Amino acid sequence: MKINALYSAVLLSLLPTSSVFAAAMDRSGQSISAFLQPNNYFEAGLSVLDPTVEGRDAGTSETHRNIEDMGNDYYFPSAALKLQVTDHISFGLLYDQPFGADVQYTGSNVFVTDANTTILSSATMSALRSSKIASSTPLAIEAFAQKAGFSVAQAQGMYNNNTPTPLGNTKDLIDANVAAQVDAGIAQVNGLVGQGATRAEVDSNNLAMIFGFQPNKNLNFYAGGVYQTIKGQVSLRGQATSVYNGYDATLKETDGYGWLVGAAYQIPEIALKASVTYRSKVDHDIETQENLPTISALGLLGEQAAAAATQIATATGDTKISTPQSVNIDLQSGVMKDTVAFANIRWVNWKDFELRPVKFGMVSEVVGQLPSINRPGGFNLLQYSKDQWNATVGVGRKLNEQWSGNVSAGWDSGAGNPVTALGPTEGYWNVGVGLQFSPAPNYFIAGGVKYFWLGDAKGQVSSQNAGNDYVADFSDNNAIAYGLKIGYKF
Q1: Which of 35, 278, 324, 421 has the greatest number of C-beta atoms within 10 Å?
Q2: Which N-terminal stretch is annotated as signal sequence (predicted)?
Q3: Is 20 exposed, middle or buried (0-12, 13-18, 19+ CB in 10 A)?
């Protein structure tokens, strides 16, 4: 069994639909396979994902409305160039968009602001109104006494007895005036909430420069540097987002550097190849513009919170994030004439990922003091509770000199459940098929499609991170991915 007899089938395992709907924000899968192709090689690919992610208000939400599809379609390109400089030295450039997100809520649900949206839940608002009325009434009695020329004791007696006056009964007048002032203040605060829907978008670019050393035909040791850019936008809206309703953050594009290292072993005569690749995390300090029109509403939570609101309003600073470290394991072997089996395993360290912009974090430290939240150290805008594991297995077969095909199945663990409502799925199962056409031995065109059964998940808002509470339930969702790739050997 010769490698040239299996070459077309082997390439099919590299179609760019391998990880287009993985856990958290993992997208491309960061494959190293193009760099391990023999001789000189170039490829370019495009992947498209069409997800359907629907659910309903649930958990701590006071409503149970349906949530329409909140997962936007998106696409991302990839490209690779590998040069065999000498018999023992190789060089490669790999480009992809490893991390991303594109979600937007629509319709009528807890992530969309409508005419009935209040800055706090209706139960909390009702309790807050009663508390404000109770604390404001003694002051109103004193003001009444001063205006009418009575002592406070006399005014209190008139209030207690609801003594009639030319304008009406004392208690009725004072209570109505206090209620009107409190309701006007609450209405003003509720008028600060943002209009529209919750949405988020994250884009990244990754360029790896790799050098390889092959001491013999079986071994390949490689390492290189990574240049990465990332940017994003997030808007929080709807009843579920509470005092963050109206929060907007723009994370301006910034760059960072990382590295990778790996080793591969192959026996070309039987199409056996195994590789393991480690990629480091990449640190970013992102210039961030934050806007939160509801900051003044913190005054509803007490004098301390009101004082903190003044500091938060003028706070600035960069947002520090680290895209996660990962390990990829790729395996393939000939199993019979013109047939190869392959497997890919990927681990991504999402458990250590945190996103906490400056103003968001300062508000979280205030809100986190509330007994109902109980996170005195604050909370993150985005985090995950588990690392991601991903696996794909399949078989590729050469059909004739120009055509070959493959079938595959995949599984992804997800990054925890409950999980952020900005990506409310818990992993997936998938099946895929691919087809490749080689008009000549040195180039090909390949296409593939995969169908994903997305895992059911409970959607959380940020204040519920690392807990079991949730505000929405997403189930029976799916996605379809399409991939197209061209390759050229020279």
Answers
A1: 421
A2: 1-22
A3: buried
